[in-house]
Amino acid sequence: MPITAREWHLAARPHGEPTPDDFRLVEVEHPDPAEGQVVVRMVAMSVDPYMRGRMRLGPSYAAPWEVGEVMKGGAVGRVVESRSPDVPEGALVLTDAAWRDVAVLDARAVRQLPATEDLPLTYSLGVLGMPGLTAWAGLFRVAAFREGDAVFVSGAAGAVGSAVGQFARLRGASAVVGSAGSPDKVAWLREIGFTAAFDYHDGRVKDLLAQAAPDGVDVYFDNVGGEHLDAALGALHVHGRVAICGAISGYNATESVPGPKNFSSLMIAKRLAVTGLLVGDHTDLHGEFTETVSGWIRSGQLAVRETVYEGLENAVPAFLDLLKGANTGKMVVRLAPDPD
Amino acid sequence: MPITAREWHLAARPHGEPTPDDFRLVEVEHPDPAEGQVVVRMVAMSVDPYMRGRMRLGPSYAAPWEVGEVMKGGAVGRVVESRSPDVPEGALVLTDAAWRDVAVLDARAVRQLPATEDLPLTYSLGVLGMPGLTAWAGLFRVAAFREGDAVFVSGAAGAVGSAVGQFARLRGASAVVGSAGSPDKVAWLREIGFTAAFDYHDGRVKDLLAQAAPDGVDVYFDNVGGEHLDAALGALHVHGRVAICGAISGYNATESVPGPKNFSSLMIAKRLAVTGLLVGDHTDLHGEFTETVSGWIRSGQLAVRETVYEGLENAVPAFLDLLKGANTGKMVVRLAPDPD
């Protein structure tokens, strides 16, 4: 019996800010799974800022989505039919195969999730998944965080940012400063242990950062780019380190984005080290990351928040709202209740 | 008997391009040396691009020169009178005490030069001195050069750039590409073993670099900034590395200098590592650097060129011409004949 799936296709490459017209929800019939395949019914799918890059051609963080084809992205689901000895029916799996409600996939294209019965399945898309590992690798490897460092993270109330700030605190940062886009988010950052936090709408980032971190910082974890990066380069100490993880302030730009001002002279005078970060380079850290972070969650030392939209039809609103900063913590689209 | 010295003082902080009026040559009488002091008669002094930074207040590569005071900079000289048991009369020394013809100095402020009778004394200001060590540390440590890397260096016919390119060649670079500011310099770069070289006046740096390095590069050693840095970020491979050593294209800027375009997205998509370089962080490399490089010079594997201006009164023209790129190799001002 053929399998009916609902899928989001890329309808058009946006110019500037994406709109709902750039996406199309279509119904597709798939044949029954072949030998070695499984049918996965998705429980939740991820929308992430980096996906804005997959909508365009040119330098991006992952292969661009093709116009007229299904978009790809992280999701967790349950195997409802299996023709592979490796992945049993009923298994909970992580895939890169949403945005859709059900998919017929090669068994090799899914990863079985370990039993974490006490933790929500969706954490595998956030704090225990790609965003969490991004924070881990960016802070500890790329930015070479050391105990006693003062850390500034932008987009601090997002999935990656909130992990970065808390990881830094738990590993002995002397200060953790975060920027976010609303008073609620700022309040939440203070709640979860940030030393200082500010709403970047409240003034020039440079001034707000100087107020929040009057003694400067050693590490900057950048999710935002633009004015935030400018301000951070100014606030960094000699031998400061920057992980460039994202630049959401420029994702909808239609012209080339201006770079940080006085870049060369700041880089030299302070011998800064600025490094680009993609999580795919750092999967070797997955073991230590998972063990440590799941421990922190279980012990209550690490706060986790999610913003959940319900239903596949709301995947596009979730994504567009994410780009506008509507989420606190990980933005997730729930497609089915958590399995028992 | 008091010692009469001629000294260059900073007369004014320039706005934009420095002019001769920003400097003043004055005659000063110094008292006889006190206990622990030496009198050094300079043989040659260095003018370097970084000195433009010492003319201004604010983020710089070294302490700013004070208006109305003598300027400082590397020089080699001979001790003509000594009241220190550590530094005998007649010793050849390196000091940071030019721009002047004679200076009364603490013995601790001079470094005795090893006997290198076969090599010109002025090499201690260039290929065997600060610029050479800058090239060494920037290429091998900061940019983490590895055998087989393709290297691009801007300002390649300068003291630092010509060392970088040749060091890379001698350590097994797959390609060494240089940019310079005149056909003569480009011809010289080809002569001394650069795989490809171009005159940046001949078109857009981006296009010239694409032609010279069609397969891209692994390492960029930046002496120029601006359009060169933009072009290099575009040409770098995934995991490419950049040492930011200088930014001569922006040294006379009167407003904030725009940064590299699309910086964040390039940094992330290619996971580039960009690091600022100041030679003072890397003095621990001095031993291996001196030994290897003096060996390369003696064996004829490393070409050295100097541009020499004669006389203290020509120090300012030398410096101003340096900023315009009039030199090939190290720019030196000779104040006296080499001692026997």
Automatic annotation (TrEMBL), chains A, B:
* Alphabetized GO MF terms: oxidoreductase activity
Q: Which UniProt keywords apply?
A: Oxidoreductase
Under SUPFAM superfamilies, the record lists: GroES-like, NAD(P)-binding Rossmann-fold domains
All residue ranges annotated as the Enoyl reductase (ER) domain in the record: 18-333
Transmembrane spans = none
* Enzyme class per UniProt: oxidoreductase
Task: Look up the EC number in the record and give it.
Answer: 1.-.-.-
Q: In its UniProt entry, what is this protein called?
A: NADP-dependent oxidoreductase
Q: Which organism is it from?
A: Geodermatophilus arenarius
Q: What is the lineage of its organism?
A: Bacteria, Bacillati, Actinomycetota, Actinomycetes, Geodermatophilales
